[in-house]
Each structure stands twice: as C-alpha cells, then as structure tokens.
C-alpha cells in the first residue's frame, strides 16, 4: 500500500484512524514510524478527546461512536504507590499531561504512554496547583501554593529547578474553591473559596491579582474553562440550568448563554466545557455532551460515581507524539546548539 500511495494521501487516510490502530501502524516500517511522528501529521490529525481521570485514565473521543471511541490507560508508576493514593491531573501542554500523586509530579503522554518523573518540590504540602507558560512555551512552569497559601513553589522547565516566593506582599487572601487553576493566554485562574472574585497569576511575571466574578459565589458547581480562546465561567443556577459568561476585552464579562433543560437533574454535574461551547456532564449512569446552542445532547457509556466529581479535573485533550523527555530538555538542546554554533563561528573566523 505504501509503495503505491503518495505520503500525503497515506497521511490523510491514517489521520482518520482512532488512537488504538494508529499506534499499531507505527510498527509497519521505519518509514511509517517516522511519518507518523512528524508534527505535520499530528496537525493534520488534530483529534480532541475528553480526559477523564477515573480509576484508570479514560480518553473519550466524543466525535466517534465506534467501540474505539474510549481508550483507557493505566497511570504511570501506580504500582509504586499506596492503593489509597489517586492521581490528579494538573494540566496539559502539547499533548503531554501533568499528573500529581501527593508530592510527586509526572509528565505523561497518554497517546504514546511515555512518562517522566519530575524533581519533587521542597516540602510535602497540599494546596493549589497550576501548569502553564508566560511569554512563550519555553517559559513553561508548574506552580504549587502551599496549604496556608503564604508561599508558592515554582518549577521552571527552563532551569529544571524548584524555587519559592512569598505571596504575603500582595495582601490577597488566597484560598481556592478548586485546587487546580485554569490556564488561558499566559495566566492561571482560580475561583476564590468564599469571595466573589477570581485569583489570577500572571505566569510570565509571577504577579498575583484579583478579578471580579460576574456572579455571586455560593459554592455551587461553578467551573472555569475556555470558549474560542477566551476565559469563560459556568454558573450553576439550580438543578435545571446554567449561565455561561465569557471574558471580553478590558476584563469585562458578557453572558453568552442562559439555558434550562429537563435533561439536567440533581444526579448530574458539570465536569468541563469544550472549547466550542459544549458542556460535559457526568452522572452515575453515563457521560453527557450537551450543546446549549442547538439544545442537543449525546451520551457516552462511562459511568462516574458521585465520589469522583469534586476530585476530578476533566480536560479537553489534543493528541500528540511529543515526548515528556523532550519537554524537559528543550533548554539543554537549545544551549547545546548555540554553543556548537558559536564554536563553529569562532573556528571559521580563526581559519580566515
């Protein structure tokens, strides 16, 4: 087949395959393996799934109704951990997710099953977490607010080291409703625990600030997410409906949806929103994808017990072949290239 079809046509065919058979095709030949690892192929594929951190990691393709629409993965290093310890998802970047087990952080690509354990933070404390970058992706960082929120630990992928900074100078009472921040456009956002504000961290300059919420914070099932590249907030307004707000320019909120549906009930809870505006809801029976614009929904056979709702950070995930090892060595590779370039330039000047 590969001998008769041009690579561009072959890539177009393979890009339509679910994850399971696609990964098997990497073993056909060296040429296929190389072709399937090209960034241009993954861009052509660009398949989005819902990432559900249950007892095993579930990758749910909500646009696929075949038996291959749900892929399950065992968590990396889970055999080395106590049984009561569950993994939490902190965030995702370039197809690699950041997992947290107590004081252990692991980069994991669920598409390729490659993983890498990161250096542990200086102390073993729980608090708030975030994963994002500042001016550019080379500025990738993990942040962890300690339990009393007076100190923030920061892991820089550029340096490969943890550092700590004092947050008390900002005069901001830091306590989060949900422990994992939402990363959008260079900032991490958390809903404050008992105030009508968002706590905002500028990842580039590591500056904390506050921003008003567009609604009263009554500790209901409120969520932050992204719609068309903008920060959004989903407000639970009773067991029959939700309001969705989007952040416009100059930090102004605009309500874009206000919807009610008999579909919603007291056994169903919002888990996340997809970038196009659809909402993912969980129930003990199944997973529901609801489109508020069309008032349509689809169901996926993934039951979720009530005990998981508060603990889960559900994400929209884009598959990639990026290796966690490459993420941690970007700076070293760049520095090596620069040194080699300088050395060649010096040698060239010397010869001339």
TrEMBL record:
SUPFAM superfamilies given in the database record: F-box domain (SSF81383), Galactose oxidase, central domain (SSF50965)
Annotated Pfam families: F-box, FBA_3
PANTHER family with a match to the protein in the record: BNACNNG10540D PROTEIN, F-BOX PROTEIN CPR30-LIKE
PROSITE patterns the record matches: FBOX
Residue stretches making up the F-box domain: 1-44
NCBIfam families tied to this protein: F_box_assoc_1
Regions that span the bilayer: none
Name this protein carries in UniProt: F-box domain-containing protein
Species per Swiss-Prot/TrEMBL record: Deinandra increscens subsp. villosa
Gene3D superfamilies: 1.20.1280.50
